[in-house]
Amino acid sequence: MLTTDEAFRKFKSRLELNSREQDNASKRHTEVRDHMRCKFSIDNDFLTGSYARHTKTKPLKDIDVFVVLGEKEKHYREEHPSNVMLAFETALVEKYGSSSVSKQRRAVTVDFGVKPDADDKTDYRVLSLDVVAAFKDGDNYEIPDATEGKWVKTNPKVHAERAVSAHQAYSSEWKGLVRMVKYWNNKKHADKPVKPSFLLEVMALECLHAPWSGNYAYEMQSFFATLSNRIDETWNDPANLGPPVSDMMDSVRRATAKAALKSAARECTLAIDLARQGKNYEALKAWRELFGPMFPLS
């Protein structure tokens, strides 16, 4: 029977993308990028977000593609942000149909119609992709924000560099723990208690303190407890450019998230206690109850 540590290592491995998933993701984002190049004058386009930072969890969805618009599209920068998002939506609807395309706060999403099975398997297919319009602004970028009704600054390169530094300082375990907590946030709740999931990653930059202890169970218990204690704080953009990443968390959502995170920390304590009593299988079932079907029992 698996020990708790072995089960966590297997869980971590299951949340990592394999070559078949990467191939499908590559096919999808290449297809979308080629289409957008035909519809707009584009200086550059590239992958960003948690997929590019290797902190994306499964099922694989919302891969971020930055589309950096060129000189001929500069008029959009002088207009309300909703205009460029509408133009992106129209272009993507032309290829994928209106039922598969929707506008979000800062991106236009293409849903590929893939539904995960009960074990969260998708036959290695990606569920969706987010297309973000952008303009270059020196070393940074400006992207439309439909909620704010204005263009906001960002720098994906800084986000990626901070994730790499945290991962290296944490004995290359940081990204694995972030993926696990994101999976919990997605899977265990009808509506994510922590939004956006990027907020969990931003909090992890400060809440996972190196060095890595070598014990997944205790690290996870401490991580959930710290997240619950600090979810009420304001969490700024890691590049210190845009609005706080926590600005989607109103008082009701913060209270819901705090309760869910506290409950998760208690469930970690219960699972650790079962293992301490020699009830290994019961401990594995408790971890599976916390995380969902991708946490292994054998």
Question: Explain this structure to me?
Answer:
This protein has 298 residues and is α+β, with helices and mostly antiparallel strands. Helix content is 49%, strand content 14%. It has helices spanning 4-15, 19-39, 49-53, 81-96, 156-169, 174-187, 198-207, 216-230, 251-276, 280-291, and strands at residues 42-48, 63-69, 101-103, 108-111, 128-137, 140-145, 150-154. Strands 1, 2, 3, 4, 5, 6 and 7 form a seven-stranded mixed sheet that branches. A hairpin with a 2-residue loop joins β5 and β6. The mean pLDDT is 95.
Going by helix content, strand content and strand pairing, the class is alpha+beta
Shape: globular
Distance between the termini: 6 Å
Percent of residues in beta strands?
5-15%
Helical segment tally? 10
The biggest sheet, with number of strands, parallel, antiparallel or mixed sense and barrel status, is: 7 strands, mixed
Radius of gyration, in Å, reads 20 Å
Q: On the 0-100 scale, what is the average pLDDT?
A: 95
Secondary-structure topology with pairs:
Layout: H1 4-15, H2 19-39, E1 42-48, H3 49-53, E2 63-69, H4 81-96, E3 101-103, E4 108-111, E5 128-137, E6 140-145, E7 150-154, H5 156-169, H6 174-187, H7 198-207, H8 216-230, H9 251-276, H10 280-291
Parallel strand pairs: 2-5
Antiparallel strand pairs: 1-2, 3-4, 4-5, 5-6, 6-7
